[in-house]
Amino acid sequence: MDKFVINGGNKLYGEVSVSGAKNAAVAIIPAVVLSDEPCVIENLPKIKDVSVILAILEHMGAKVRKVDGDDSRVEIDPRGITSHKVTCEKLVGDMRASYYLLGALLGKFGKAVVPFSGGCSFCERPIDLHLKAFETLGAKTNICPNRIELSSERLEGRPIYFDVVSVGATMNAMLAAVKVPGRTIIDRAAKEPHIVDLANFLNSMGANIKGAGTDVIKIRGVEKLHSCTYSIIPDQIEAGTYMAAVAAAGGNVLIKDVIPEHLDSITAKLRDTGTLVEEYDEAVRVVRENTLKSCNVKTMPHPGFPTDMQPQFVALLSTANGRSRVMECVWESRFSYIPQLRKMGADIIENGNTAHIYGKQRLTGAKVRALDLRAGAAMVIAGLSAEGITEIADIKYIERGYEKIIEKLTSIGADIRRVTYKEDIEDDL
Ligand code: EPZ
Question: Which residue, judged by its Cα, is nearest atom 8 of ligand 1?
């Protein structure tokens, strides 16, 4: 087993580049299933979730080839996928986003069989809205103990209304509808940057999707989708995580290869803490010299403050001067990591969906766990600003979503390394 060991207290200086967006990549790769020709996807992040979804497609019969030996540029030829059934349960169980195969296979074959997916399980993660969208288009759904079966006689474009705004259900509805005859209108669609990226990718293959990024997405079904070369947007949450890391540790870092508008809500909250954020065309500079000020944060679907930045901000605000309040309004519960922060001396009281944070001057290094991807990122941020040594176990969750995190943080001056350990010695964590 490996853990991260951080010797906290170094301020961060220099430049760091952001990789392609995980949550766009894990939808765009399954979307290639819908194409009748090979596609080249560029700016793929080199992370576990991407290698798993590529392996799933290969298992289904697709040919996957690195272009010029570069992992971030991959050609996917879906023509060998001839079955609507996904049989690699183990791989599918490794990642939540494999549910996008439901929409993609339904769109391609009019039916799908996909094992239940795994992934970050910080709370109950329903898919009723995904199924509702498929049923609206004319599919029959059958939930078996270990898989989901979709079938249809004839799919037809229809209006789909979501009573809860859902990223996954919006993406899946787009995937399912893009080749379905007629007009599908998705009302109360999610508006995250990765929704727009998936729509742009599908349109590059010849789809007819309008309105992505607004509440209403209109899709006119097309018969065929063709090859394209498409570059994935930068990862909003990876960028936000480095921004929060600089704010927590202090210093002055240029965060490159970002779309600053995607970071607006994060930038606004960092400015509330007294952190300076300068925006350039494709970069942001984060400077933190003075004591952090407390602030209140409420997570909301885009363009609100992203839930995937909530744990990192709770870690950051743990050392802000005064009392901060963080409300989680997207997921029913996403505070299970707070006891880990308390081990480092954080003073946080949970009350329902709200965390009340009484800022301390400094946290203290401790042995903690990464309970999921973003909770793990929060531990890294806490460790960078803390006094002394922080050891983070279960780093596999962090590495599912952050490309080369050790190398990137080391390059801006953090003292962080990966250490192999025997689990039985460390079970006091
Ligand atoms: C995506 O998950 C992201 N995952 C999550 O990021 C992110 O936290 C979430 O969107 C919200 O932004 C991927 O893109 C792979 P939702 P998703 O459907 O699509 C409720 C990370 O750290 N809901 O937008 O599964 C649900 O309970 C991960 O990178 C239903 O009620 O999230 C939640 O309260 C973790 N029924 C709300 O909608 C449904 O059928 C939003 O969830 C689906 C969702």
Answer: 308
